[in-house]
Specification:
Elements: E1 11-13, H1 17-27, H2 33-51, E2 58-63, E3 68-73, E4 79-85, H3 88-98, E5 103-104, E6 106-111, E7 118-124, E8 133-137, E9 140-141, H4 145-156, E10 161-165, E11 168-169, H5 171-180, E12 186-188, E13 190-191, E14 194-195, E15 201-202, H6 208-213
Parallel strand pairs: 1-12, 4-5, 4-6, 4-8, 8-10, 9-11, 10-12, 11-13
Antiparallel strand pairs: 2-3, 6-7, 14-15
Bound molecules: 1-O-pyrophosphono-5-O-phosphono-alpha-D-ribofuranose and uracil.
1-O-pyrophosphono-5-O-phosphono-alpha-D-ribofuranose (PRP) binds near residues 138, 144 and 173.
Length: about 220
Amino acid sequence: MSAGMLPQAVLVQIQHPLIQHKLTLLRDRETNAKEFRELVEELSVLMTFEVFSDLPTREVEVQTPLALATAKVVDIKRIAIIPILRAGLVMSSGILRLLPNARVGHIGLYRDPATLTPVRYYHKLPLNLPEMKVLVVDPMLATGGSAVQAVSILKENGAREIKFLCIIAAPEGVQALSAAHPDVPIFTAALDEHLNEHGYILPGLGDAGDRLFGTK
Ligand code: PRP
Ligand code: URA
């Protein structure tokens, strides 16, 4: 399937030059684990600005040293960041530097290497998900199986307003996620070509979890 056939309404490619620059460094096989983690954190912060550009604000009054100002605030506690373990963890730790009072829920999934289907092993979620703006984070959207299952778990637990943030998406993953959950917008820095026979994104960046945590 070509990128042109994808449902554009649910896919936002973030094209900012600084994001694309950092993505290039991330793809480079010479980038070591420390640099790779730093880049994933930085990219996550930068992309979160775009993801949450529609957050509602509330007016408050604040006393400056000179006068009373009418200013705006966001209800950060109504935001839930949901990393898919393992690789999503580094994205959430970057985003927490920007939104330190956001709530965090964890969903543990890994892909069975033979079937490429996700195996669920853990989840712990914030209590009041129905009232929260929920952002699922995982650097890679490959077959889409992990993202589809993570969003299903969130909906089973009451989440209503969900967005998905990745760094690289494959057309197959965008198709699967938007077919299963058409209400969930997908934000990515890149839409790559396709998957190889092992379910890895080409050209991609390799195995995100292994590169982040040095496990291979
Ligand atoms: C990777 C990645 C996603 C998943 C994407 O995790 O971080 O969670 O694969 O693939 P999919 O779209 O085909 O489901 P992995 O399963 O390797 O687990 P890990 O992070 O624990 O290594
Ligand atoms: N998971 C990864 O870490 N990389 C891919 O290319 C696909 C799935």
